[in-house]
Each structure stands twice: as structure tokens, then as C-alpha cells.
Amino acid sequence: MTIEALPEATHASFSDFPVSGATRKAISEQGWDVPTEIQNLTIPALLDGEDVVGLAQTGSGKTAAFLIPLVEAMERNARGIQALIITPTRELASQAADELKSLSRHEPVKPVVLCGGTSIKPQINALRGRATKVAVGTPGRILDHLQRGTLQLGSVKYLVLDEADRMLDMGFAPDVGRILSHTPDARQTALFSATMPKEIKGIVNRHMRSPRWVAVETSAPTVDTVEQVYYRVDGKEKTTALKTLIDAEEKPLVIVFRRTKRGAKNLHRQLERQGYKAGLLHGGKTQSQRTKALESFNMGRTRILVATNVAARGLDIPNVSHVINYDLPEDVDTYVHRIGRTARAGKHGVAVSLIGEAEVREFRQITKRLPVEVRESRLPKSA
After folding, report:
1. Would 85 be classed as within a structural domain?
2. How far apart are CA 150 and CA 112, in angstroms?
3. 86 and 167 in contact (C-beta within 8 Å)?
4. Residues 6+ apart with CB under 8 A from 28
5. Given 202, 217, 232, which residue is the final one in a domain?
6. Which residues share a beta bridge with 231?
7. CATH number, domain at 273?
8. Which helix (H) or strand (E) holds 164?
9. Is 381 inside any structural domain?
10. Same domain, yes or no, for 315 and 234?
């Protein structure tokens, strides 16, 4: 199957899209004027009722690309769940639900978030209510509700698979297949993914109807907008180097990436003991703990967020000034996703990598695949 980009789009403004006045007003209140490329190419097709496969990286605006047509497709007076959005993580589910509320504020579409880590009872109560039209969640909890009989998908007419390749990496492919078997064949489906491995092509072939394929290259521009530097640092001195970098900046908002949950916890503990206010985010946290850490960081109450790769995709915090790779990322895709957490919405951002002697060769393998040079720098002198 060949993936082709659509012809050049003609929509210079969101006002060019054939959407309701209520949706147009909500889009304007979001402060959006010119659609991104993925929005320009997919929104018209989805508004026309087509199935769409979109290849786009995080940060390309794909969430609005599938939510705007969803808002338009909803029948406010109909009963049952009309739309289902499946995401790989709780953070992505929560963000999609929040953005849906904003885009439908003038003609409300009430979503329910179905994720683990929180009590299932409020979710069951929401699913029983007539007002709930959209379910947004992770495969495990969605399947749990299906098995309990608390979620019925027979009325779904709009389905979204977000970050499909990541769901595959996390082992959710069988769960996704089981969930889709509970939905009507006549539904409209949108699938978004950063890459297109053969397993996802199989999902497309089995579960989608002659989809429109859209490919948007965004990884290189994302890299281009970030100032990238690295420091050669002895492994035992990385924490000292990290503190030196943080102390050299005035009120930075920093995400520090570690490879493992244990490493993130240890670094967080060290920083807290030495007087730094820091948050902690990893896959072992409950949803309420993650939400609290993200809110504190987003509001600037804590200016350092120590995180594993769970924060590399799906977070949209516009004011992150620095991303610091305390541990080297596993591959170039992870590197790009990590540094894409800064320089959001046209702002300046800096990506720093702390490279031990044993990591030099691996780091060079990553950087040689990037479209820009990552320059070596010297650490600022401690005060």
C-alpha cells in the first residue's frame, strides 16, 4: 500500500472550513487562526465522512484535526456513545477530553475518560448518563468496561485510534482488535500514527474502509526549531552538571529525561534533598498523581519535572524552556519526541544532552540522522 500526501490544501484559515458557527466561535476562542498542515489535509476529508489515515508526529495539531470533525458529527439528542477515541496513555486521553470540551463549549459534547489508575465507579456513572456522547480512554480500561457490560459501542459512528504505533509498541494491538469488534462496521474511522509498521497496515486493512492516506513530515522542522547542545560529562558528575545548568538560568521550566522509573525516582530524590522543587512523572504513577505533577509544573509551582519517556509524547506544555537528556534516548525517534516538548507554539527552546564517555558512540549514531548539527558546549562555571 502506497502512502501519498494529499494535494496542496487551500484552506488559509479555520474560517474556510464548513463547520457550524458554534464550532467556529470555539476555534477562534482557542486563539487558532491558520490550520496546521495535518489539519488542512484531514479535516475536509473527515467532514466529508471519509476514513483517514494520518502520518504525523506529536505537536503537529492532529488532536484538533480529529476533534473538530467529531464535534460536527455528534447528534446532541441521540442516546448512547457516538464516538470512541482510543489512546495509548492516560495523559493523551485526558488532553483529548479537555480539548473536546473547549471545542464544543457552545454546543457541549460531554466526554468520559476511561483510564486505569482512578476509581471506575465515576466512569460507570458517567456512562449511564444520557449526556455522555464520547468515550476517550486507554485500551485496557475500555476493554474492562466492555467485559463488565458498562460500555456499549453499538451506536458508535466515529472512532479514532491516536498514536497507533505507540499502542502497538505497548502491546495493545490485540486489545484494540477486540474493542473494534464491538463497534459497527459502518462507523467512520480516523487513525493517526508517527510511523506505519506493517502491523498497523494490517489494522487499516481489516478495520477501515478505503481510507484517505495523508503523510505530513514534521520531525525535521521540530528539530530545527530547537537549539541543541551536548556536554561531555563523566557519568558520576551528571547530577552536578544538571544543577549547574539549572542554576545558570533565570526561572527555567525544565523536563529532565531518564530511561528508567528507578533512575527518575533516584534523581528526583537527590534534587529534592538539595533544595530544588521538582515533580516526578513515570509509568508507575496513578492518574491523580500524574495530573497533580503536570498541573504543578504547568503552573510554574515546580520548575523541574523529572520524567521517563512517558512524558516524551502527548504532553503539550507551551512554556518548557529546556529539555535535558540526563540519560541518552534509545533511538533518534525518541530523541526527537523528547526535544519536541520544548519550543512549542513558536517559542525558543533548548535541548541539552549530558553524554558520558560510554555514550559518545551511541550519541553520534543518533545525531548523524538529524537534519541539524548538535553542537558541543562547555558547562557554565558554578556560582
Report:
1. yes
2. 13
3. yes
4. 14
5. 217
6. 354
7. 3.40.50.300
8. helix 164-169
9. no
10. yes
pTM of this structure: 0.62
Task: Answer whether 327's CB lies under 8 Å from 258's CB.
Answer: yes
State the residue range of the domain holding 346. 220-376
6 in a domain, yes or no?
no
Q: What is the mean pLDDT of the chain?
A: 87
Q: Which cell goes with 183?
A: 463497534
pLDDT > 90 in the chain, percent: 54
The letter for the amino acid at 82 is Q
Assess whether pLDDT exceeds 90 at residue 187: yes
Question: Do 42 and 184 belong together in one domain?
Answer: yes
Count of beta carbons in the 10 Å neighbourhood of residue 38: 25
Overall domain count for the chain: 2
Whether 354 is covered by a domain: the verdict is yes
CA dist 153 → 72, 202, 208, 248, 331 (Å): 19, 22, 17, 54, 38
Residue where a domain stops, chosen among 198, 217, 236: 217
- The C-alpha cell 529525561 sits at 257
Note the Cα 163 to chain centre separation in Å.
7
Distance between first and last Cα of the chain: 59
- Tell me the C-alpha distance between 113 and 64, whole Å: 17
Q: 331-381: per-residue pLDDT in tens?
A: 777 788 888 888 776 678 899 999 998 888 889 888 887 888 899 999 987
> In whole angstroms, what is the distance from residue 274 CA to residue 261 CA?
20
| 62 burial level (CB within 10 Å; 0-12, 13-18, 19+) | buried
User: Given this model, what pLDDT does residue 241 score?
Assistant: 96
Q: Is 225 in the same domain as 344? A: yes
The three grid cell numbers given for residue 167, joined into one nine-digit string: 499502542
Please give the grid coordinates belonging to residue 258.
Answer: 531518564
Whether residue 194 sits in one domain with residue 89:
yes
Instruction: Count Cβ atoms within 10 A of the Cβ of residue 370 and give its class: 0-12 exposed, 13-18 middle, 19 or more buried.
Output: middle
Same domain, 104 and 47: yes
pLDDT above 60: residue 275? yes
User: Which three cell numbers mark 130?
Assistant: 444520557
62 in the same domain as 200: yes
